[in-house]
Design brief:
The protein is mostly helical. About 85% of the residues lie in helices and about 0% in strands. It has one domain.
C-alpha cells in the first residue's frame, strides 16, 4: 500500500509540474481562453485513453504502472478545479461566449481525446 501511494505521489508530482509549466507559458489573461489548462486537460485525456487502452488490450501494464501513469501522472496533469475556477471568472465578468466555448470545447474534445487514445492503443 505504501508503494502504491508513493507511485501515485511521484506520478502526480510530475504531472502537476508539467501542468504548471503549460499554464505558465500558455495561459495569458489578455487572450481570453486559458490555453494551458485546456491543453493539459485534452492531452491528459488522450494520454489516459492510450494508457488504459494499452493496459486493457495487452495486459502488459502492472497495477503499479497504471497507478503511476494514469492515476498519478494524468491525475496530477489534468485539473477540473482550475477549469471550474476559470469558468467562474468568465461568468463573473459576463464573458458568456468564452465560457460556453471553453466549457463545451473542453468536454467534447476531452471525450474525443479519450476515445482517440483508446483507438490508438488498439
Amino acid at each position: 500500500m505504501i508503494k502504491q501511494i508513493a507511485l501515485v505521489f511521484v506520478g502526480g508530482g510530475f504531472g502537476s509540474i508539467l501542468r504548471f509549466l503549460l499554464g505558465k507559458y500558455l495561459n495569458n489573461s489578455q487572450n481570453g481562453i486559458p490555453y494551458g489548462t485546456f491543453a493539459a486537460n485534452i492531452i491528459g485525456s488522450l494520454l489516459i485513453g492510450i494508457i488504459l487502452g494499452y493496459a486493457a488490450k495487452n495486459d502488459t501494464l502492472s497495477t503499479n504502472q497504471t497507478l503511476l501513469l494514469a492515476t498519478g501522472f494524468c491525475g496530477g496533469f489534468t485539473t477540473f478545479s482550475t477549469f471550474a475556477y476559470e469558468n467562474h471568472i468568465f461568468l463573473k465578468s459576463g464573458d458568456f461566449m468564452t465560457f460556453a466555448l471553453y466549457t463545451i470545447g473542453s468536454f467534447i474534445i476531452g471525450f474525443l481525446a479519450v476515445f482517440f487514445g483508446m483507438y490508438l492503443a488498439k
